[in-house]
Amino acid sequence: MARIPQITDRSQVAEDERHHADAIIASRGGIGPPYNVLLHSPDIAARTAHLAGYSIFESPMPLDVKEIAISTAARGLNCEFAFASHIGLAREAGVSPDTIEVIISGGSTEGLKSDEGQIVDFVRHILKPPNRVPDALFAELENRFGVATLVELTGIIGAYAALACTLNVFEVPAPEGSA
Predict the structure, then answer these.
(1) How far is CA 46 from the centre of its chain?
(2) In whole angstroms, how far apart are CA 137 and each of 1, 48, 61, 119?
(3) What whole-number distance in Å separates Cα of residue 148 and Cα of residue 165?
(4) How many C-beta atoms surround the C-beta of residue 78 within 10 A?
(5) CA distance 45 to 65
(6) Measured between alpha carbons, how far is 72 from 86 in angstroms, rounded to an integer?
(7) Radius of gyration over every alpha carbon of the chain, rounded to an integer in angstroms
(8) 42 neighbors 13 (Cβ within 8 angstroms)
(9) DSSP one-letter code for 175
(10) How many other CB atoms are there within 10 angstroms of residue 17's CB atom?
């Protein structure tokens, strides 16, 4: 059970802020997590929706890379909702079963396809103190993606870390029948 009342209808948002709820409804088909709690602060909800929407729907980053990053971040931040929502999408995007198992278990990336293992390692380094990426891994990913795409990947991880924090703080449960 969420810690605060969930906003499920645009009428629950102040009239002068409903345009934010309307934009979220238009882009997502309704008001679901995390926007059902973020709309208590409509401006932050709208800004978050813009970044998250770009990250998942518009970013030119390959879908498998995005879903590895998002699933790894969600698992690393113990966010049941985001993890349950994205691990299936990672499977659908063609992420290998071995990588899925490593993300689920938190196990070693040794033995994974290097392109998938790099992403898992990158996310884990960002989220685990000292929250830095080793030079060798950074160089590998910079060579693989280029600077702009590496910045984009880091931004996607940050966006989903913010979503995970919101979902965790307000204890939004994972969707039923997920994962």
Answers:
(1) 16
(2) 40, 29, 18, 9
(3) 26
(4) 10
(5) 25
(6) 9
(7) 17
(8) yes
(9) P
(10) 16
Q: What is the torsional sign of CA 91, 96, 97, 102?
A: negative
Alpha-carbon 67 to chain mean position: 8
Among 51, 38, 39, which residue's Cα sits nearest to residue 165? 38
In tens, the pLDDT along 112-141 reads 999 999 999 999 999 999 999 999 999 999
Per-residue pLDDT at 179 exceeds 50: no
* Residues 95, 116, 70, 67, Cα dihedral to 10°: -30
Token code pair at residue 82: 């985001």
Give the number of other CB atoms < 10 A from CB of residue 4.
12
pLDDT at 81 over 60: yes
First-to-last CA distance in the chain? Answer: 19
Q: Is the pLDDT assigned to residue 176 strictly greater than 90?
A: no
